[in-house]
Amino acid sequence: MEEDRGRIKREVLRDFARYIDPMKVRTLKAAGLDIVEDRREGASVWDITGRRYIDCTTGMGCFNVGRRHPRVVKALKEALDLLDTGIFLMVSRQKAQLARRLAEITPGNLTCTLFGTGGGEANDAAIKLARGFTGCKEILYAERGYHGHTGFALSAIGREAYREPFEPLMPGFRRVPFGDVEALEKAISGETAAVLLEPIQGEAGIRIPPDDYLQTVRRLCDENGALLILDEVQTGFGRTGRMFACEHWGVVPDILTVAKSLGGSLYPISATIYREDLLDFFIAHPFIHLSTFGGSDLGCVVALAVIDVIQQEGLVERARAMGERFAAGFEVLKRRYPGLLLEVRQKGLMMGLQFTNASIGPRMSYQLAQRGVLAIYSGNDPSVMRLMPPLVIGEEEVDQVLEALDEAMAQLMKEPGIGKED
Amino acid sequence: MATQEEILEALEDYKLQCNSNQRLRRMQKDWSRVIHFICNDTEDTFTMEVIKGEITEVRAGLHGPADIVVTADSETFCDMFWGDLNPTQKYLRGEIQVKASQEDIMRLDAITMIIWPDV
Fold this sequence. Notes:
A: Aspartate Aminotransferase, domain 2; seven-stranded mixed beta sheet; B: alpha+beta; 5 helices
């Protein structure tokens, strides 16, 4: 049986490499991350060979309620007996229920929703709405920011490698340094349609802005008639210890985008949630932005179950509590490995460990995988190990991750090339 | 330890393998870089110039400003240029150090995958 599973794994990896992406397989294999996902439950995933891993990647924030949460699975199963995606042009009870629920749980006056299937699509819709509503074209976005790989969103991506092969991209996009109020003040004007930001940058390496940054951005947007779009695709739904990260700073955007965890990783769904008066653009331009499977009835049922779970099981509070447990462990690690672990950046269970150089992130991924922890370094800064476990992670699992980090760092200390200059 | 001559011979073969591979040339046509190789045991150094996917020059010494700097011991370089080891695995063990963008590191690995798919 064990031999069969080993054979199946080899076949899967071979077929994946042959028919999908050989470089992906090669890179994952080298990093010890060539697992073939099999059983999934709570904060854990099992390789097809039966080895268990604690999932600290969660698809960059998809599994806030854990993997295959039983209540969400049940809701989807029941919905499958009655529903399908629905006709996207039609009215549906599920869409209306979810939109109303999103209006209730989002901060301030964000009351209207446009559904999509993924984060990029949600940000595309936000940018279109901002341009359509304001009549202005300029979109300001942040260095090293990440908003997805679709048309408008790609134009706002802060990493050249993602952009260059596809240029020219959409015109009217202008990059500013993240967290720099003065730079934004110089860039923003009456021609600015929107400022698009992640409240905490995920791909960039869990970069948390200075405390007054988002409040100042809000003021600058108001003074210049620009909209503030906050991309909470990674930070939303309890990840940072608040339902939405913008609540840490008491800032309400004009448009908030969510995806990933909204679908509980059982059904892809995203939402562009905006303040009521922006609806005027869609009243004047009905049917101008459509998505065949955006806000599918099945997806809406799943999303409603996800929100129920987050609220009724206290996952926002749990993210804070488990975040504190991690933080205490990180303090020990920082003292133990000062020449390797330079800084910890954290809000709740959105955590980034800043190491000395860009080789360390991939090497930590490898070392952690050897110790039963799945974690992937930040795409836009490989010197940062990103940890984003499900919010349902237990105390014992947190301790296991900390122990694996300790052992992995101890191992790296014995290897060459770990200094700042290496 | 490998000598400077041995590494240059391996580099010349690597150049031949890369330049004669049409798939690789097509794939790398948007890639021009100067790469420095530094042997941390013998202190020998080498420069490779790539212009639009073609390796135009390999020679001893450090020439021009580098886009990529690779440091390892001389044996590792020799094995790497002959296709006898997986450089990514060595990189992930700290035995090869690379100062470059993440994209360039992936490009180097992609070259290895194309010319030595079994490594």
